[in-house]
Amino acid sequence: MTALLGVSFVDSQVKGPYKSWVHSHFFSESSGDTVMRDEVAYEMPFSFIGRIAHFLFIKRTLNNIFDYRHRAIEEIFNASAADAIKAHSEVA
């Protein structure tokens, strides 16, 4: 893993199901909020068979994984923001 503190980090597959896998995470600020962006570059193994598997189910599975991750992050941080506002208003 490589990191640029507070800006980005990259994790790469050393051994696993893909021929290569590099997942980059980027963080930036927009209107006082933190924006998180992912980039994934990967290659399927097994040449033609890997491309068929990618077309039939792997691409859809990866999209579902990242859609779930996005929803979970939204839920966690929106709940945290709502709790922080509630706690702050209770204190005031």
Notes on the structure:
The chain is α+β, with helices and mostly antiparallel strands and 92 residues long. The chain has two domains: 1-43, no CATH class; 46-92. It is 49% helix and 33% strand. The chain has one helix and four strands, in the order E-E-E-E-H. The protein has one helix at residues 47-91; strands at residues 2-4, 8-12, 20-30, 33-43. A four-stranded antiparallel sheet has the order 1-2-3-4, with no helix packed on it. The longest helix is centred in the C-terminal third of the chain and has 45 residues, at 47-91. The chain is globular and about 45 Å long. Residues 84-92 have low confidence and may be disordered.
Low-confidence stretches: 84-92
| Helical percentage | 40-55%
Major sheet characteristics = 4 strands, antiparallel
Q: Tell me, rounded to a whole number, the average pLDDT.
A: 84
Distance between the termini: 43 Å
Helix tally equals 1
Beta strand count: 4
How are the strands ordered across the major sheet? 1-2-3-4
**Which shape, going by the Cα principal axes?**
globular
Determine the structural class based on helices, strands and strand pairing.
alpha+beta
Question: Approximately how much beta-strand content do the residues carry?
Answer: 25-35%
Note the run of SSEs as H and E. EEEEH
Rounded Rg = 18 Å
How many domains in all? 2
Which key features would you list for this structure?
92 residues, 4-stranded antiparallel sheet, disordered C terminus, single chain, alpha+beta
